[in-house]
Amino acid sequence: MSEITPTSSNSETIPTRKNALEEKYKSLNEKEVEGYERLKSKETTKLPKPTGWRMLVLPFKMSEKTKGGLYLGQETLERQQVASTCGLVLAMGPHCYDKEKFPEGPWCKKGDWVIFARYAGSRIQIDGGEVRLLNDDEVLATIENPEDILHKF
Q1: Are 55 and 91 in contact (CB under 8 A)?
Q2: Domain of 64?
Q3: What's the gap between Cα 126 and its chain centre?
Q4: Would you say residue 92 lies in a domain?
């Protein structure tokens, strides 16, 4: 057995452990954050621009780590994103929520989290996931935090 030698009179040197699985998921998470930042900055010009009364929505992607500390597989995360009914409004077409069709005003605006039907809109595959093109009347509700909704798939 190896003996741990104290570095001072009251402290001990504590060996550190490396968890390969945790390091792997940390690197994947860093890549995802990098991808999101790239999407926010220069990649937004590559996203489709909605026309008419349509809006571009980025489906919510849940955390890779559960509250209990378990890491979810990539396939599970991708399935959840496809089945998601919650998303962030990235862009809106010029005729979204026109005053004639919606006299009370718009239901949501760019940057809002919205809830929509599971099969609503057109799915468009992009680098790092998918976006959806929804009609303005397909928005069911707005929410403050998408993590408050129970996401089942």
Answers
A1: yes
A2: 48-148
A3: 14
A4: yes
CATH number for the domain spanning 112: value is 2.30.33.40
Residue 24 tokens read as 């792997």
| 153 residues of the chain, pLDDT tens digit each | 444 555 555 556 665 665 665 666 566 556 555 655 655 555 566 788 999 999 999 888 777 777 788 888 877 777 666 566 889 999 999 999 888 888 888 889 999 999 998 888 999 988 777 889 999 999 999 989 887 776 555
Q: Indicate yes or no: pTM above 0.90.
A: no
CB 46 within 8 A of CB 125: no
Q: What is the DSSP string of 52-115?
A: TTEEEEEE----SB-TTSPBPPHHHHHHHHHT--EEEEEEE-TTTT-TTT-TT--S--TT-EEE
Task: Tell me if 112 sits within 8 A of 142, measured CB to CB.
Answer: yes
Name the phi and psi angles at 110, rounded to 5: -60, 130
